Amino acid sequence: MNCEQCQQTLKCSADTDCWCMTLPNILPISKSSGCVCRPCLIKNIRAHIENIKSKSIKEQLALARPYQNNTNFIEGIDYDMENGLLVMSRWAHLKRGKCCGNGCRHCPYR
Predict the structure, then answer these.
(1) What are the φ/ψ torsions at residue 58 (nearest 5 degrees)?
(2) Domains of the chain: total
(3) Is residue 86 part of a domain?
(4) What's the pLDDT tens digit per position in 10-21?
(5) Source organism's superkingdom (predicted)?
């Protein structure tokens, strides 16, 4: 099976516990029935998180709330590495549910 976006070969096990189930299930339902690889799915999730900026903070928090207790941070979704430093993403801040007061670059509460 190939990723429907980049055509990379991938293993999909949707009928059992697929690797994609470890990522936040926040994307709108798609008409496509194909699978995407991990990098493409992370890219799609990041784009969706950027797109919901226009929604109220209450709506954004409602989307993140089910993942609030998930402490398995995912590079590319919850954080990025920049110059050897861990930079928390907008999604990580939404999952926290409130501002930490550190003046974070991606803080959605400002």
Answers:
(1) -60, -45
(2) 1
(3) yes
(4) 887 776 778 888
(5) Bacteria
In sequence order, what are the residues at sequence separation of 6 or more whose Cβ sits closer than 8 angstroms to the Cβ of residue 82?
none
Dihedral (CA of 27, 45, 49, 94) sign: positive
Instruction: State the Cα angle at 68 between 18 and 36, rounded to 5°.
Output: 30
Q: What is the DSSP letter of 103?
A: -
pTM across the whole model: 0.88
In tens, the pLDDT along 32-79 reads: 767 899 999 999 999 999 999 999 999 999 999 999 998 889 999 999
E strands, 5-84, where? 79-82
| Three-point CA angle 95, 39, 55, nearest 5° | 40
| 54 token code pair | 């226009």
Query: For residue 40, what are the domain limits?
Result: 19-96
